[in-house]
Design brief:
This protein is an alpha/beta fold. The chain is built from 6 helices and 9 strands; from the N terminus they run βββαβαββαβαβαβα.
Length: 211
């Protein structure tokens, strides 16, 4: 699904195809261990073979929910930060949801491949680029965190390509693809020992058996 096909949805961003929402602990990257309210938005055409949220790919399977209802749930949870994820959340206009979160003094985080133009006002942008759908140039200079999923040796080359395109202050993470953890983690460890500007990101929420 590309931008032209999204027009049947609410392009103002006042309603979004909501897959799920929940209050939990961030389990990956720089913000691991921090409490946050997660908003998973439906829709993704990138199609990673190892994706662990394929159920989110088709936005037609998920109800359009008003941002006002989502904001109410965030406030009721007591959370002080929100992570917007997907799917690929930047398929949608996220200006309005960020505006309403900011009005309520809620910090805004996004997890994105960067394959679509940026919308929204973000306190933290985690960019996780994918080989089959490279990120937009505009997001590279402002990403706070670069998180590259490592499935095989080719992904190290991909990671270095984007390390050289993000800003000097961007935090750098290599994360083992979950289903290949045992076989790929030794390679990641050795790679980071030789290239110490990288850090390891682990999906600790899966070890804790939480969403």
């Amino acid at each position: 699904m590309r931008l032209a096909e999204i027009q049947k949805y609410d392009t103002t961003g006042r309603s979004l195809p909501l897959v799920e929402e929940f209050y939990s602990i961030q389990g990956e990257g720089f913000n691991t261990g921090k409490a946050a309210y997660f908003i998973r938005i439906g829709g993704c055409d990138i199609g990673c073979s190892w994706c662990d949220s394929r159920y989110s790919w088709n936005p037609d399977l998920h109800p359009l929910v008003t941002v006002e209802n989502i904001i109410k749930n965030v406030l009721d949870s007591g959370a002080d930060s929100v992570v917007v994820t997907g799917g690929e959340p930047l398929m949608w206009n996220l200006d309005f949801i960020c505006k309403r979160l900011k009005e309520n003094k809620i910090a805004t985080f996004i997890e994105t491949s960067g394959a679509y133009p940026l919308s929204g006002d973000w306190d933290w942008i985690c960019l996780s680029p994918k080989r089959n759908s490279p990120p937009e140039d505009e997001i590279l200079s402002i990403a706070n965190e670069l998180k590259v999923i490592i499935e095989d040796q080719v992904d190290f080359i991909w990671a270095e390509k984007y390390r050289n395109l993000v800003s000097n202050g961007c935090r750098l993470y290599l994360q083992p693809e979950w289903s290949r953890f045992e076989s790929i983690i030794p390679d990641i460890v050795e790679y980071i020992k030789k290239n110490t500007y990288w850090n390891i990101s682990l999906q600790v929420h899966k070890y804790m058996h939480i969403p």
